[in-house]
Specification:
This is Cell division protein FtsX. With about 325 residues, this protein is α+β, with helices and mostly antiparallel strands. The chain has 10 helices and 4 strands. Helix 2 runs antiparallel to helix 7, helix 2 crosses helix 9 and helix 7 crosses helix 10.
Length: about 325
């Protein structure tokens, strides 16, 4: 009589495809569950969205304003020109001879002579005081040379040229017409760095706000985390829903920031257009655009993930079954 064959316990092996499908399924469930939890607490979620949105909108809005200012100043940029106001004793013939001499310099491309008579006629036509100027016995304007440096000459070299020309005996004063634009560009560069510093501080603040929000969520679900760990749940398994919670908070804050910046630009667009029309300019405010808004959403999501990761890594290790 044959005895029944006895078999021992066999180790079950899970296929890689099954593990991947389970991992993907848990991601979907964690994302949906965390989104449901975020949207279920409407008031607290809205407050968190607003805090994050305002913190992100401030540096982004200032940066958009600087971009518009840069766009406006780009239209003013022109080759640097040095105005040489000659002494009263210099006649028109001497001014023309000086212009011919200066044109021979390799760092000067052109010199235009503006006589005192031409300057007075132009000023009379533009100012509207032709009758008053006609009553003057003497012409108060000096002869003028407009010196254009060679193309490609750097700002320091142009400044040195202005200094050398101003030291000539015939010259009363030398003025670099583009100095004001260089000062404006330097001021805008300083402003941009200040905005970057403020933005960096606010980004750190957003990460801390999100970290504190996730920490409260962890404390509220402490018992659930303990039970999951008791039945064998790993730290990545427990961490995943909180990371998605931070991601949703970051996306919501980025969306609020984009809406705030767009609303502010819409509020300012009409008066800016009116002011530009008074100066015969076609300048219009430029906003974030589609890509800028998407980048803001991505930035908010990444900050949400960073804040959630810091909070979960810090506090999850303290929650262990006893």
């Amino acid at each position: 009589m044959n005895k029944p064959r006895l078999e021992g316990a066999r180790q079950s092996r899970t296929r890689f495809a099954d593990r991947y499908n389970a991992w993907l399924r848990h991601h979907r469930l964690s994302a949906a569950d965390s989104l449901h939890r975020v949207l279920s607490n409407k008031l607290s979620t809205l407050m968190t969205f607003l805090v994050i949105g305002i913190a992100l909108a401030l540096p982004v809005g200032l940066n958009v304003a600087l971009d518009n200012a840069t766009q406006l100043s780009a239209g003013w940029d022109s080759p640097s020109q040095i105005s040489l106001f000659l002494r009263d004793s210099v006649t028109g013939e001497e001014a023309a001879a000086l212009a011919t001499e200066l044109e021979q310099r390799p760092d000067i491309s052109a010199v235009q002579v503006v006589t005192s008579e031409d300057a007075l006629a132009e000023f009379s036509a533009l100012s509207g005081f032709a009758d008053v100027l006609a009553s003057l016995e003497d012409n108060p304007l000096p002869n003028l040379l407009l010196v254009t440096p060679t193309t490609g000459l750097e700002g320091a070299a142009v400044g040195g040229l202005r200094t050398k020309l101003g030291e000539r005996q015939e010259v009363s004063e030398a003025v670099l017409d583009m100095e004001w634009l260089q000062r404006l560009n330097s001021l805008m560069e300083l402003s941009r760095r200040i905005v970057m510093a403020i933005g960096g501080l606010l980004v750190v603040g957003v990460v801390l706000i999100l970290g504190n929000t996730i920490r409260l969520a962890i404390e509220n679900r402490r018992e659930e985390i303990v039970i999951v760990k008791l039945v064998g749940g790993s730290n990545p398994f427990v961490r995943r829903p909180f990371l998605y919670t931070g991601l949703w908070f970051g996306f919501g804050g980025g969306l609020v920031a984009a809406l705030l910046v767009t609303l502010c630009l819409w509020f300012l667009r009409a008066p800016v257009s009116q002011l530009a029309a008074l100066y015969q300019s076609d300048f219009t405010l430029k906003g974030l655009g589609l890509m800028g808004s998407l980048n803001l959403l991505v930035l908010g999501g990444l900050l949400g993930l960073a804040g959630a990761w810091l909070a979960v890594t810090r506090h999850l290790a303290d929650i262990e079954p006893r």
